[in-house]
Amino acid sequence: MKNTASTIAVLIAALAVTTVAYAATVVEEIEIEGMVSPASPKALSAALEEQLAVKVLGYNFYGTANGWPTVKVEYDSGAVSKDQIENVIDSTEDPTGRPYKVHKDGKQIHLALLEEETKADSIFAADTPDIPKVSNPIPASAESNTRGEKLYVTYCSKCHGMTGNGAGPSAHGFSTNPRQLWAWHNADKSSDPYLFWFITNGRTDMPPWGVILSENERWDLVNYVKTIAPPK
Amino acid sequence: MAEKIKAPRMRIKRRIKKDEIFKVKVRFDHPSFTGLGMVDEDEVLFNRAVPSTFIRNMLVYYDDELVSRFRTSSAIADNPLFTFKLKAMKEAPVKVVFVNDQGERWETSKDIKFST
User: Fold this and answer.
1) What ipTM was reported for this prediction?
2) Which domain holds residue A89?
3) What pTM does this model have?
């Protein structure tokens, strides 16, 4: 009898230890579709925190790996599962009436061209540009980089991304991938005419910014692009 | 996607003479949406909100020869109407192919026959 009681006590203790071992605080980032208005993040946070024991740590709208916004949540894995969180997201509506959705990459960002589109490209695409050898009149100073960064955020980040990763929100569905701009990180002066030509004239889905930006602004952009560092 | 996609339709005039320049009108009921939202009013930056939907290419064939290509973007209107001109060089079909950003393809064609 004494042995049975002690065995039960040991089993209960082991179970308690196991429960403690499995219940842990988890921080997870989940990709979200349906963030359409300024009221969207607040409404989703409220739904998650009211329905589940989940703490919303924040949102990332502009710097994610594939361009989709993410919500960062912290929860106790013993009390809440990831499936439960995803179910709450999928069953919640934005204040504008659109449903939120966990993004599962049902549609890719850049889909391959059809064979006949590729053929059309080969027939109608422009020849390799003859890039004039011009020199950058604006020194790569901190002031120029600040001006360039401001222009970059306004005009370029929508496609090239805030971090220069080529996955900006507007690039979704383009037939050509926007360049990952960190390829020119710390490039020497020989890259300046090439960058300036592309910013000025554009190509494929990139518009010719020479129509909108002044020459000095484009050189500031060249200086700033060369400061964009690759991810660590 | 709330809007329905209908097969494209082409209109050309009935009487066409050889070497005449004639108009081709193509209507395609296809939604166009950038997929962008703006959650941050202060920064005025757009974020990706929902999957985009738009026509990305329109290819024009005359007698199975590619004669023109229209590259379009998410800036195109819903249900666009395209009008362009062709020279009636020969009696042959005119075919217009649409491809959207998901790689889905539609086509419409009409035969060109010269009136006497």
Assistant:
1) 0.85
2) 21-102
3) 0.68
Residue ending a domain, among A44, A67, A102, is A102
pLDDT at B3 over 60: yes
The total number of structural domains in chain A stands at: 2
Q: Does A165 reach chain B within 8 Å, measured CB to CB?
A: no
Contacts of A173 in chain B (CB under 8 A): 35, 51-54, 56, 74, 101-102
Q: What is the CATH number of domain B9-37+46-111?
A: 2.60.40.10
B33-81: pLDDT as tens digits: 888 888 877 766 778 888 888 898 999 999 999 999 998 888 899 999 9
Residue boundaries of the structural domains of chain B: 9-37+46-111
**What's the pLDDT at A19?**
46
Give the HSE-up count for residue A68: Cα atoms under 13 Å, Cβ half-sphere. Answer: 24
Residue A105 has pLDDT above 90, yes or no: no
Contact state of A111 with B38 under an 8 Å Cβ cutoff = no
Give A55→chain B minimum CA distance, Å. 20
Q: Which residues of B touch A45 (CB under 8 A)?
A: none
Report the alpha-carbon distance of residue B90 to residue A20 in Å, rounded. 82
* Residues 6+ away with beta carbon under 8 Å from A232: none
Distance in angstroms (rounded) separating the CA atoms of residues A175 and A108? 11
Domain for residue A70, yes or no? Answer: yes
Contact B59 A116 (CB under 8 A): yes
